[in-house]
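Residues pack. Consider this:
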Amino acid sequence: MSDLFLDLRDQSHTLDFIANALEYVAPTARKRLEQDLEEVTTKRALAIEELATLAKEIGKKSWAARRALAKWLHHQDGCDMEWRKVVATVSDSTAHILERFRHGTACTSLDAVLAHEESGSALRDLERFEIAEVRRHVRHDIWREKHRNLSQDVDAAEKKLVAIARRLGTLRELAGDAPWIQDEIMSKLEHWEDRLYFKGEELDVKLLDEEIRLYREEKEIPTTS
């Protein structure tokens, strides 16, 4: 079993990610990416490599928007809006469980409810699946409603992404220049890019700089035959 957030060999999960992330891509870029997706998926044999490349590009194009939205949803106003929309959309029985559980605990967000140690007995897998599906669409709705207000956060996230991607590019170059450490670096890059583009995390540039420094030093160490 893969330890990655998104196993790109799993076409179904990859297509799910693409469908979700496309909602956060700017309209002009989205149109081209949707055309690319149609070309890839209408082929007789769906190429895993092509789909993986497209997923990564969509992950990049949507990253700043997803980060900006996630930041806003961590504020109480965002938590409250997400809660109201999810409760209003799920089935009556699931909504009743959520409201009852929240009132009986100190939870102030949907994340807190789902992570609460007692939520396992209150929410079955079926209800958790329903909440996850509804939540995905609710976040799309919130993004469409709030994206103009989040433009500064998107711009700030774009700058962070450029800095992170530049460092990942440097590490990829180091891997190409030093065959004896290539597999190690490429394995790390796979996991870093998975966390960045697919899970939507922000990588620590200081840690990446330290990795670059260490691998540059190792690159200078001559190998023995």
Summary: The CA atoms of residues 174 and 194 lie 19 Å apart.
